[in-house]
Amino acid sequence: MASNALSRLANLHRHFHITKNSTKGSGNENQNVGTIKISQDVTTALANGKAVVALESTIISHGMPYPQNLETAKEVEAIVKEKGAVPATIAILEGIPCIGLNGEELERLAKLGTSARKISRRDIAHVVATRGSGGTTVSTTMIFASMVGISIFVTGGIGGVHKHGESTMDISSDLTELGRTPITVVSAGVKSILDIPRTLEYLETQGVSVVAYGTDDFPAFFSEKSGCKAPCQLDTPEECARLIEVNRKLDLKSGILIAIPIPKEHSVSGNIIESAIQTALREASDKGITGSAETPYLLSRVNELTGGASLESNIALVKNNAGLGAQIAVALAQIQDHSSSS
User: Fold this and answer.
1) What are the Cα distances from residue 334, in Å, to 4, 80, 238, 339, 341?
2) Is 56 part of the annotated catalytic residue set?
3) Where do the H-state alpha helices sit in 229-269?
4) 43: left (phi over 0), alpha (psi -120 to 50) or beta
5) pTM of this prediction?
6) Residues 212 and 259 sit within 8 Å (Cβ to Cβ)
7) What is the DSSP string of 295-325?
């Protein structure tokens, strides 16, 4: 693993050092367009073959209000560290993709909140070119993690096929990114505001390996079960790490989705959440809310309709995912270290 990471770092070395005179007004506004900034902790971990876990940032910018978003981000990073991995929160700040945010950068993004851009694959070039700032979605976080050799990425839940997606064609770019970027995404399944059966069908079409952790019933974000049978089941971090390593060695060039059920004590009643989702969907339709604005609206409205229970569950499942994701990353690092030394 160390040699692979060093190779990537060497190839990207010219991107890592952002010069002091690259700020606006210096006359060098275009000097560092397209550069990537990696924190020293992440750089060192990758160079030494240590476990690194990528974290997205739209949960900070669009997932909850300040200061709860900042507190949650710090707590999730702390959990990753406690489990033996290095957290790498990813965002774009003033036109520079950043892999691993320091405390000041986390706070800056948290305070920006929804005034920051929500950055999917299609938005990357524009945000960088215009020196914008924003949180990275699942698809964008996957892209930047893959660029620098991070294998595992933890999030709350991925996007998917929206309700009535067969007629609206509203399908998250998270799904196509999983089909073409070799990153393992650890989540609580697919957001329950979406069409889970059609999402699983689309993932199959994209050739994505879908795993349910410790169950054969695919998780439904706020609820432990969706009623959809998972394509396969794994029960330990070591088993997940072996799958990831085989996917890498075979050079399949596609991602893996590991879906972890929300802890039972934080699961929201299926009937309560389904009722709230249906209400939120009707309201979104009536208000003409579509595209990238729809998911934040639905999650916020469902939280209101459930008296805050859905947000509490969201935070709990992200923390749970972070812990297991870090354990998988540590197991993967050990496998790759053993493989390189044998």
Assistant:
1) 14, 16, 10, 8, 11
2) yes
3) 237-249
4) alpha
5) 0.87
6) yes
7) HHHHHHHHHHHTTTHHHHHHHHHHHHHHHHH
Instruction: Indicate the angle between helix axes 294-305 and 309-341, nearest 10 degrees.
Output: 120
Q: How many residues does the chain have?
A: 342
Given the residues 50, 56, 163, 294, select the one marked as catalytic.
56
- Distance (Å, whole) CA 191 – CA 212: 15
Distance CA 42, CA 36 (A): 13
Per-residue pLDDT of 266-322, as tens digits, reads: 886 656 877 888 899 889 989 998 877 887 888 789 888 988 787 888 899 999 999
φ and ψ at residue 172, rounded to 5 degrees = -65, 140
Pick from 277, 267, 302: which is nearest to 63 by CA?
302
What pLDDT, in 10s, does the model give residues 176-223? Answer: 999 999 999 999 998 777 899 999 999 999 999 999 999 999 998 888
134-136 and 256-259: which strand pairing? Answer: unpaired
Q: To the nearest 10°, the Cα dihedral for 18, 24, 30, 31?
A: -30
Name the catalytic one among 37, 118, 163, 191: 191
Q: What is the pLDDT of residue 297?
A: 86
Give the separation between CA 200 and CA 205, rounded to whole angstroms: 9
- Our answer to whether residue 50 is catalytic in this structure is no
* Cβ–Cβ under 8 Å, residues 189 and 157: yes
R_g (Cα) of the chain, nearest Å:
19
Contact criterion met (CB below 8 Å) for 226 and 286 = no
* Pairwise CA distance, residues 13 & 293, whole Å: 36
